[in-house]
Amino acid sequence: MPAVPTPPFAATGRAVLVIDDEVTLARNLCVYLDRLGYVAETAGSAEEGLARAVELRPDIVLLDHNLPGQSGLAVLPRLREQEPAARIVLMTGHGSLELAVQAMKAGAVDYLSKPLVLGELKLLLERLSSQQRLETAVGYYAQREAQSSGLDQLRGDSPPMRALRERIERLLASERQLGDAEAPAVLIQGETGTGKELVARALHYGGPRAAQPFVELNCGALPPQLVEAELFGHERGAFTDARERKAGLVETAEGGSLFLDEIGEADLSVQVKLLKLLEDRRFRRLGGLRDQSVNLRILSATHQPLDTMVQQQRFRADLYYRLRIVELAVPPLRERGDDILALAEHFIALHARRYRRPPPSLSPAAEAALRRHRWPGNVRELRNGMEQAVLLAGGTQLDVEALGFLGPTLVGPAEAPSPGSEAERPAVSGLLPPDADLNLERMERRHIETALARSGDNVTQAARLLGVSRDTLRYRLERLGRA
Ligand SMILES: Nc1ncnc2c1ncn2[C@@H]1O[C@H](COP(=O)(O)OP(=O)(O)OP(=O)(O)O)[C@@H](O)[C@H]1O
């Protein structure tokens, strides 16, 4: 098999400070590092090294132990305190293993024995640089995630949305006062696409666990055995495909939050294990012999009435009460009044920016149509619909024709509906235009495509909108040649 070429390593100006009183060696090292693409400087003593570091801000420090005056090991803690981002490597005499162990204990990331082997040094610097780059990237993404997950992302000024935001703010304020670290479990209820995940993220990133992981699992997206394996991980050989030991999401979320979306879809066997996790903060990997303890906060969401499911014995009562220490209800979009138009404008501006075109305005007829629609797919449907409208818009104004995704009954001039009138209810076949195409297969295809478009191609959500199971939708998609 041909060897896979590894991309060339580029030091791209990483700064290395060499603290060594052997002037010739230090100078030669600098020339070598310079050739590899590093910016290298030398210092002949511990004090000079500390002073140099202030200006250079080194990414890596090669620190000799045998320095005049203060030894390398003695200056290490000061250097770490002054340059917390720098990786420090102690250079020791050959065979001083004990010294190397002490250096690592004092915070050095590695050690090199003198005389230096240049190939070894090169590999070590590459490894340290790659680690730093990875950490910077992870830090960047974590920060970006946090910035786009605050409470301010939950737009809307209607009374139900203001009430929801106030409830979340009160909860976050109480959590800040919490004596122990055990934040209460929160159950977020609401129809599909109302913003339950946004609420979960706002709770995590607005709370004391913000710097720790936010890990999510959609319990309806996988078969029960896989949900268990994803959540709790498995030992090698726990089942046929378990070739390696794998940590689960519960472990990954240590210190942070675990968001269980569509908790109503969790199988009864998963429910038992979740109960144990909530009650004892303990879990066991599949095929594992011992329990492990974990510190995490559980957030869950559902569009299903869990209380009814409890009565029907489809959901464990004990788990339900554990999950809903705090309950938050996210209102459907149709109950948010003027938020519909404000959100529509927000999404138009967002998609216009993405597609680099001026944002079109909404015509009065289009506004009326948006207000009248029932929004079964809620904010997600509005967001996807506005993307389609922006994409297909010809001029500077969006008229009702651009809102084809709302369905045939809403396209065309409409009278303002009186509350509870036919037009206010969802579109039914009796309202189709007289010349509408009634071919059943084509209607089914259109229906399925509309549901997939509204749900952003999410089969679980599309199936829910269509009122069929995921398997039924998959079967129909296959039959229509869309799988
Ligand atoms: N109040 C809001 N302001 C701005 N964007 C929103 C709001 N609510 C929802 N969204 C957007 O709508 C989309 C759907 O939201 P989200 O995934 O949070 O809904 P959900 O209730 O978790 O859906 P599901 O039930 O399907 O899991 C996302 O793109 C989200 O950013």
UniProtKB/TrEMBL annotation:
**What GO molecular function annotation could you give as one example from this UniProt entry?**
ATP binding
Annotated region Disordered: the residues are: 413-435
Identify one Pfam family in the record: HTH_8
Q: Which residues carry this modification: 4-aspartylphosphate?
A: 64
Query: PROSITE patterns per the record?
Result: RESPONSE_REGULATORY, SIGMA54_INTERACT_1, SIGMA54_INTERACT_2, SIGMA54_INTERACT_3, SIGMA54_INTERACT_4
Per the record, the GO terms for biological process are: phosphorelay signal transduction system; regulation of DNA-templated transcription
Q: Which UniProt keywords apply?
A: ATP-binding, DNA-binding, Nucleotide-binding, Phosphoprotein, Transcription, Transcription regulation
Q: Which InterPro entries match?
A: AAA+_ATPase (IPR003593), AAA_lid_NorR (IPR058031), CheY-like_superfamily (IPR011006), Homeodomain-like_sf (IPR009057), HTH_Fis (IPR002197), P-loop_NTPase (IPR027417), Sig_transdc_resp-reg_receiver (IPR001789), Sigma_54_int (IPR002078)
The UniProt entry, under SUPFAM superfamilies, shows: CheY-like, Homeodomain-like, P-loop containing nucleoside triphosphate hydrolases
Record Gene3D superfamilies: 1.10.8.60, 3.40.50.2300, Homeodomain-like (1.10.10.60), P-loop containing nucleotide triphosphate hydrolases (3.40.50.300)
Q: Where is the Sigma-54 factor interaction domain?
A: 154-391
Domain Response regulatory positions: 15-129
According to UniProt, the name of this protein is Sigma-54-dependent Fis family transcriptional regulator
